[in-house]
Write a structure and sequence with these properties.
This protein is of the alpha/beta class and about 350 residues long. Helices cover about 35% and strands about 15% of the residues. The chain contains 13 helices and 12 strands. It has a 6-stranded parallel beta sheet with strand order 3-2-1-4-5-6. Helix 7 links the parallel strand 7 and strand 8. It starts with about 20 loop residues before the first strand and ends with a helix. Bound molecules: iron/sulfur cluster (SF4).
């Protein structure tokens, strides 16, 4: 094919939001990891419009994280709105807050209904529909880039560029509460702490086998580390499998971190986090904790951990990778099953050695 026949990729079209926006609503994404990956874009908007009052709107469990993003001065919950009536009601509530602009990160017109109903005059989002006054278009190529770049397109509407890495820290109260929680479940503070996130809210297709986590735990315990497992309460059966292969109980915290603040506290204390591609993986990276991520069904080009600390990704794609399915239809789940325990252990030991200096 002649070079002239190769179509040039189209550059995204990003309309510029007007000056003088005093109150900006930032409707954050609906997944925890995406909230982390949208944070650099929000921080960029704050740098570009330092005098604007930024209010985040996000699912209620993620509000503690939204409050950590630079420039966010207020946080509102997103309701579990299913009907058009509920969305209109949400719009009436937003109208009272008199926002000048809304930045809508979810790529769904549904997320834009309430800001539009609220009569927010400037609405920035993805696509050319009339839901947005400033819709970013021709951005298809960015869908396969890292999610921080995709979200960064919305910051460009404010003439702002994202700066990486983005990170945050927890306060002393959060850290001390996490120390108490760990101690209550058997933590020995003379040992390095490795935290596993062995589940995935998205689906089992993202999960390295529990048996492998268990064999990894056995080697880490033998090396003299403490191993804790975190996750939602639904991760408890996975914890039990891990403990059975580890040969002894671990620090079981799945379902025992009462909220995201508590989870952030535990992650902040980790010397290493070993995780599937999950929200806690992104939180750990943003906290600057050494992060070893195991990918199979999803694409590390799009969602590798991005933060101020060291991160490694283990990914041996199959012809079907990345599938982005929730459940694997292939016998043996090869994309993740073939990532061997010995290899993960070598990386874990290297990262712990590096963290110890
Ligand atoms: S083996 Fe293939 S189909 Fe199964 S989860 Fe991995 S990438 Fe998806």
């Amino acid at each position: 094919m002649a070079a002239a026949d190769v179509a040039e990729p189209t550059a995204p079209v990003v309309p510029t939001a007007p000056d003088g926006l005093a109150r900006i609503l930032v409707r954050l994404p609906n997944w925890l990891g995406d909230v982390v990956m949208a944070a650099p874009a929000v921080a960029a908007i704050h740098r570009a419009r330092p005098d604007a009052h930024l209010t985040a709107q996000v699912k209620a469990p993620f509000m503690p994280l939204a409050a950590q993003i630079d420039g966010i001065q207020g946080v509102l919950p997103v309701g579990n709105d299913r009907s058009l009536w509920q969305l209109r009601q949400r719009g009436r509530e937003l109208r009272e807050k008199q926002f000048d602009a809304a930045v809508v990160f979810p790529r769904s017109e549904r997320a834009a209904i309430a800001p539009r109903r609220a009569g927010i005059p400037v609405r920035v989002g993805y696509g050319g529909s009339r839901a947005f006054t400033h819709g970013v278009t021709k951005a298809r190529a960015f869908r396969s880039a890292h999610r921080t770049s995709w979200f960064g397109l919305l910051a460009k509407a404010f003439d702002a560029e994202i700066e990486l890495p983005w990170g945050f820290g927890v306060d002393d109260t959060t850290r001390q509460a996490a120390e108490r929680l760990l101690l209550a479940h058997g933590r020995d503070t003379s040992k390095p702490l490795v935290v596993f996130e062995p589940g995935a809210s998205y689906g089992a297709a993202k999960c390295w086998p529990a048996e492998s986590f268990g064999r990894l735990a056995a080697r880490l315990l033998e090396m003299g580390a403490d191993v804790a497992t975190v996750g939602l309460a639904g991760t408890r059966p996975i914890e039990e499998v891990i403990a059975s292969f580890a040969g002894r109980p671990l620090i079981h915290l799945a379902g025992r971190t009462p909220d995201l603040t508590a989870l952030m506290g535990v992650l902040s204390l980790a010397d290493l986090v070993v995780s599937n591609d999950t929200g806690p993986m992104h939180v750990a990276a943003a906290l600057g904790r050494p992060t070893l991520a195991l990918f199979g069904a999803s694409d590390p080009v799009v969602s590798a951990p991005s933060g101020p600390g060291p991160a490694r990704v283990l990914y041996d794609p199959e012809p079907c990778s990345p599938c982005f399915l929730r459940l694997c239809p292939v016998v043996g789940h090869p994309c993740l099953a073939k990532i061997g325990v010995a290899r993960v252990f070598r990386h874990a030991r290297d990262m712990l050695d590096a963290a110890a200096g």
